[in-house]
Design goal:
The chain has eight helices and ten strands. It is of the alpha/beta class and 279 residues long.
Length: 279
């Protein structure tokens, strides 16, 4: 499958797309504060690209439980300088923005970002669909039990979690189409962790049944160091890499086209090893 990011093309016919997470926030659950200094941001971006990342994704607002609302002005002040620095240092790199705000998305796309990842799937800002349609860029829409980007620790219960996710994504696809977004722009994320439920069983069920969503469009999955991987020992995010890699393999084997991760090199390596073992 080929994706076009402006004049650049990403061919994923024979490999998984790796989206490297580079949060420029002080409070993200794993990398909060690690990229606030420009030199560290560039060093981490360089390592991600050398490790096999296809896309660098900047996030300027945390969305986990207990995180704080961030104004568009503050988020823009975080995101745009980071975007400028990445584009100057890595002019050939594809840079995405993780935001639910139309103004932030519009400013970033105007200044060279090539994709928007919206955890609210257009529900948080009524102007987001218009911005995405006007720019014609790839657009990730994610399922979340919460209407806004601020997810909660609610122990949501489902009769059939995949049926619920599928119905939600079908509705958001229909709304996006009505607002001028082309089907080929859409990438779909079923959501994991607290975006689904505080019960980790549902996240694992989604990974195991991911193939049931393939007919909707290309799938992006982001298990990276999330709470559902903490296990009975309640491991901190710093110790969830092995579980993250296992979840990433499961996602790809069940149809994920993109993996969004804090650990692009390790993810690329384990997926390559897994693929070669099946030859």
């Amino acid at each position: 499958m080929k994706f076009f990011f402006g004049s650049k093309m990403l061919d994923l016919a024979s490999r998984t797309g790796i989206v490297a997470i580079l949060n420029v926030t002080p409070d993200s659950y794993y990398d909060g504060g690690k990229n606030l200094d420009v030199s560290m941001l560039l060093a981490n971006a360089k390592a991600a690209l050398e490790g096999g990342a296809d896309i660098l994704e900047i996030g300027g607002e945390s969305t986990g439980p207990d995180s704080k609302d961030v104004s568009a002005e503050v988020e823009t002040a975080r995101v745009l300088p980071a975007l400028k620095a990445l584009r100057l240092s890595f002019p050939d790199a594809l840079v995405a923005i993780d935001t639910v705000k139309a103004d932030v998305a519009d400013a970033a796309l105007t200044q060279g970002a090539v994709m928007i990842n919206d955890v609210s799937a257009g529900r948080s800002d009524p102007n987001m669909f218009a911005v995405i349609a006007r720019h014609g860029c790839p657009y990730v829409m994610m399922y979340s039990k919460d209407r806004t980007q601020r997810t909660t620790k609610q122990n949501m219960r489902y009769d059939d979690v995949i049926a619920t996710v599928r119905m939600f994504l079908e509705e958001r696809i229909a709304q996006a189409l009505k607002n001028g977004i082309a089907k080929e722009q859409m990438i779909l994320d079923p959501g994991l962790g607290h975006f689904i439920s505080s019960d980790p069983a549902y996240s694992f069920e989604i990974l195991e049944r991911l193939s049931e969503l393939q007919g909707l469009g290309p799938i992006l999955v982001s298990p990276s160091r999330k709470s559902f991987l903490a296990g009975p020992e309640n491991l901190p995010s710093s110790k969830r890499l092995p579980a993250t890699l296992d979840a990433s393999i499961l996602a790809v084997e069940n149809g994920a086209l993109f993996i969004r991760t804090h650990d692009p090199k390790e993810t690329r390596d384990v997926l390559r090893i897994r693929k070669n073992s099946k030859k």
